[in-house]
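Hi R.,

As promised on Friday, here is the backbone we talked about, encoded as structure tokens. Could you run it through your design pipeline when you get a chance and send me back a sequence?
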């Protein structure tokens, strides 16, 4: 189930990031392509020709190879174009209506067949397009030229104009531009793959982190249900067994069967205590429950809570050592702080060695108050410390079986400290000691 959730999170993240990356790179490539095409068109249009001027009379002096003198003796003026070096490799052709090349103006030395092929392709393509010549790519722009015939005696006077007689074709080498676009496309493709691969591993890492709390919560819930069922099973079994005995001896008086009634009462009390602890834990873990913070004397609370354990310590011949700095005041929930102190002190006495000791200390460090409860006992192995605050956790069964309880006390204590904004920690050395520390931040300045 959690693997499917993780995969869905990963798939959603990859879909969103892939869309953003692909769209961004398409926009970059499309923008670059559009700008490149615009620059090439601007270069093609630079130095164009709109009219071919023909003057009447005179000798035929044109350099146009395929033209014939007009009947009126007019001649065509020489073909003049402007090829700027900053446009790159280019050439231009003057062709007639039959796609015959009449004039060539080129920066390169190409064969005549090559120019004829270029002219025929351009005229067949109508106006604009691209062509490959001798391994290079050329973009062209063809435009018709108006044949303007002028009076031979008065060049300022136009006799007539004949449109479509000739066409002017400009060719521009765009090989490098297309290579640049191809390189850019390959670079963007490589970057896309790299970015998506990196993000895949990052997404998987965070997807695992996102799912892990749910997995842990699910495991804790299952463990809680199993442990609670186990804890409730024993008193229920006792109640059922003793009820069966009572039913079997229903004719006996209550006094004669008081032992079975006492067993039922003790089992019911145990269930009541367990249910009460569970309700208390649920209340402490409820985020809607806010502590009532007020200033109070923490030193007095620690001293009073310690005094309440004197009788229990005396029964096990345990000495309680006190090192409580007076006048330490904090602003917090007094009742809940007292509850945590009672849980820690009760555990310290319960798991201390016979004829051992329990040490309670309270001291102020700058704006913090540190309270520690320590006992000398069997201790807790290091591998068990991370689970010590789990519900129903008791550690070594042999050690736990000697003491009654539900394994909920430390879970309740941790839930309370989280609500109070304090920190509880544990340190232990097997065979030597176990020490719990609570750190209260921001003690009262006058405390």
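Update: got your reply. Pasting your designed sequence below so it's all in one thread:
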């Amino acid at each position: 189930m959690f693997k499917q959730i993780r995969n869905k999170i990963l798939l959603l993240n990859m879909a969103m990031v892939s869309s953003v990356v692909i769209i961004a790179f398409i926009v970059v490539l499309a923008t670059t392509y559009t700008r490149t095409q615009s620059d090439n068109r601007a270069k093609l249009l630079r130095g164009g020709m709109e009219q071919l001027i023909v003057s009447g009379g005179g000798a035929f002096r044109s350099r146009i190879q395929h033209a014939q003198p007009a009947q009126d003796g007019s001649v065509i003026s020489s073909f003049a174009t402007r090829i700027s070096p900053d446009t790159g490799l280019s050439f231009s052709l003057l062709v007639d209506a039959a796609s015959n090349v009449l004039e060539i103006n080129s920066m390169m030395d190409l064969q005549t067949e090559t120019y004829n092929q270029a002219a025929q392709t351009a005229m067949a393509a109508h106006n604009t397009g691209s062509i490959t010549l001798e391994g290079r790519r050329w973009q062209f722009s063809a435009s018709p030229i108006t044949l303007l015939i002028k009076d031979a005696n008065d060049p300022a006077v136009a006799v007539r104009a004949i449109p479509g007689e000739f066409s002017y074709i400009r060719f521009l080498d765009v090989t490098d531009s297309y290579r640049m676009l191809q390189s850019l496309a390959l670079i963007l493709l490589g970057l896309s793959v790299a970015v998506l691969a990196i993000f895949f591993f990052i997404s998987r890492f965070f997807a695992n982190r996102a799912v892990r709390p749910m997995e842990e919560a699910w495991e804790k819930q299952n463990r809680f249900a199993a442990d609670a069922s186990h804890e409730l099973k024993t008193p229920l079994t006792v109640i059922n067994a003793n009820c069966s005995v009572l039913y079997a001896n229903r004719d006996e008086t209550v006094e004669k069967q008081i032992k079975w009634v006492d067993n039922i009462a003790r089992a019911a009390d145990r269930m009541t205590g367990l249910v009460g602890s569970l309700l208390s834990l649920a209340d402490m873990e409820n985020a809607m429950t806010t502590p009532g913070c007020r200033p109070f004397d923490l030193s007095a609370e620690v001293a009073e809570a310690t005094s309440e354990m004197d009788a229990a310590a005396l029964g096990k011949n345990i000495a309680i050592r006190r090192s409580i700095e007076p006048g330490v005041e904090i602003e917090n929930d007094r009742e809940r702080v007292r509850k945590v102190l009672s849980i820690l002190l009760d555990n310290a006495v319960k798991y201390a060695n016979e004829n051992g000791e329990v040490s309670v200390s309270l001291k102020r460090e700058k704006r913090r108050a540190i309270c520690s409860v320590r006992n000398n006992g069997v201790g807790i192995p290091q591998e068990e410390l991370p689970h010590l605050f789990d519900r129903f956790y008791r550690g070594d069964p042999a050690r736990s079986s000697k003491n009654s309880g539900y394994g909920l006390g430390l879970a309740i204590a941790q839930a309370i400290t989280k609500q109070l904004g304090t920190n509880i920690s544990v340190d232990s050395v097997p065979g030597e000691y176990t020490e719990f520390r609570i750190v209260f931040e921001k003690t009262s300045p006058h405390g």
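One thing I noticed while checking it: The CA atoms of residues 224 and 391 lie 7 Å apart.

Thanks again,
M.
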